[in-house]
């Protein structure tokens, strides 16, 4: 059976932290689907099309990584794509507590069919988040050290 992981997020924008998790997860799975969740209640800085293009361009050298979009529950999307794993990155203890609650809920509602796999972000990238990047961009700071090269075009 093919090991398929879904790495969900808004990726507004993709950061070097996201990139780090994906690169390190590639050898662990047969396929990784970077799944951009759409939430009508959220105001995104970048369009869905732009975010998808950046992710595709930054991961073009990884043939086992696919980029897709979805709405609704991540576990429902996983079932639709026959994914047995949800991949999540952890930067700090607060991330762990938040992600642990979601993982337990997902495990319960899928009758244990989908397992969440956590990877720690590399120490040099553990401070990076999309919200920090957006704030740096809004304030005209040097965001380029926080994102893949393809995003450095603003």
Automatic annotation (TrEMBL):
GO MF term list: ATP binding; pantetheine-phosphate adenylyltransferase activity
Record field: catalytic activity: (R)-4'-phosphopantetheine + ATP + H(+) = 3'-dephospho-CoA + diphosphate
Enzyme class: transferase
Cofactors: Mg(2+)
Top-level taxon of the source organism: Bacteria
Protein keywords: ATP-binding, Coenzyme A biosynthesis, Cytoplasm, Magnesium, Nucleotide-binding, Nucleotidyltransferase, Transferase
Residue ranges occupied by any Cytidyltransferase-like domain in the UniProt entry: 6-135
Protein's GO biological process: coenzyme A biosynthetic process
Pathway where it operates: Cofactor biosynthesis; coenzyme A biosynthesis; CoA from (R)-pantothenate: step 4/5
Signal peptide: none
HAMAP family: PPAT_bact (MF_00151)
Function: Reversibly transfers an adenylyl group from ATP to 4'-phosphopantetheine, yielding dephospho-CoA (dPCoA) and pyrophosphate.
PANTHER family: PHOSPHOPANTETHEINE ADENYLYLTRANSFERASE
Protein name: Phosphopantetheine adenylyltransferase
Encoding gene (name): coaD
